[in-house]
Amino acid sequence: SSGINAEWPLRPGRMETFFDFRVNAGNHHHLEELCKVYSKLGYKVIAVNHEIDFQAAFSKNKLNIGSYLKEIPKTIHGVKLLKRITLNCSDASLLRNLKHSTLLEFDIIAICPRNEDVLSQAIRTFYNHFHLITFDSTKILPFRLKHSHMNFAEQNNISIEVCYSHIIKDNSLCRVLVSNCKDINWTSRNRNIIISSNVDDPLYIRGPFDVINLMAVLGISFKSAKAGLTTNCKKLWLKAHSRKSTYNGIMSRVPTAQIDSGSSWIIPEKLHMSDDEQDCASLPKKMKVKE
């Protein structure tokens, strides 16, 4: 209690941007109901989740995506919407398919590893192609986490997700989530954690500070829980955006119409010419004309 009192109260007048990166919605009407509650509770950005089995999805080199997910609007009730896909993976050899062009349609890519080999390969080799590690919150972790796993994840900017909605739905799952949080906290040292709801019903959505208090019960400190709803999410969002809009996070292609006058020097001189001027410039300096 002394640790919580040391952090409270928050600075007056300071507005935070709260995120929820795992929301399950079956259709647009359902999504609108969820966004209405999120807006009232102070959330600004949410990610609509689509979960698939990685092996089944790529059995024929195709990725099955919910049709409604392609038509999700950018905002509803003032809440920004992102598209997320969660890949349940039990075979490390399938991770090479993370480079599939269809996955570029999603803003956030999460992996749910079913064994230690998948987790190890993902965070060591394919860390540039996904953003988030998550686990099934209804079951005990299928393997024991190690400090080396979390160190590699932190070095490569891969976040670890904790979902809370299942213990609100079913009290019998409290022991499962407490056990999983204990392992994640011990190995990650309360760093690089993302807190999501994984809700499919507006009834189970909780306000940001209710979630922070709940995480304190599960052993996650106030500072880490707050970062898991704000700053850590923002870092992940920026990484995800750079993955889609740049090449290897270095180069991006921008239409010349979007470049302001102060940066016009980066446009090649040829692009400033008219079509006739470009044709003239392409001619050789000495040109023989036959009579």
Helix content: 25-40%
Assign the structural class, choosing from mainly alpha, mainly beta, alpha/beta, alpha+beta, or little secondary structure. Answer: alpha/beta
Compute the average pLDDT: 80
- What's the number of helices? 11
Number of strands: 10
Coarse shape: globular
Sequence stretches where pLDDT stays below 50 over 5 or more residues: 1-13, 285-291
Q: Terminal Cα separation, in Å? A: 98 Å
Query: How much of the sequence is in beta strands?
Result: 15-25%
Helix and strand pattern? HEHEHEEEHEHEHHEHHHEEH
Rg from Cα: 24 Å
Largest sheet geometry:
8 strands, mixed
Question: What is the gist of this entry?
Answer:
By secondary structure, the chain is α/β, with parallel strands linked by helices.
Structural summary, described in words:
With 291 residues, this protein is α/β, with parallel strands linked by helices. The chain contains 11 helices and 10 strands. The protein has helices spanning 2-7, 28-41, 54-57, 116-125, 147-155, 165-169, 174-188, 208-217, 222-229, 231-245, 275-282, and strands spanning 18-23, 43-53, 75-76, 79-89, 108-113, 132-133, 159-163, 193-196, 246-247, 251-252. β5 (108-113), α4 and β6 (132-133) form a beta-alpha-beta unit. α8 (208-217) crosses α9. The protein is globular, with a radius of gyration of 24 Å. The protein starts with a helix and ends in a 9-residue tail after the last helix. Residues 1-13 and 285-291 have low confidence and may be disordered.
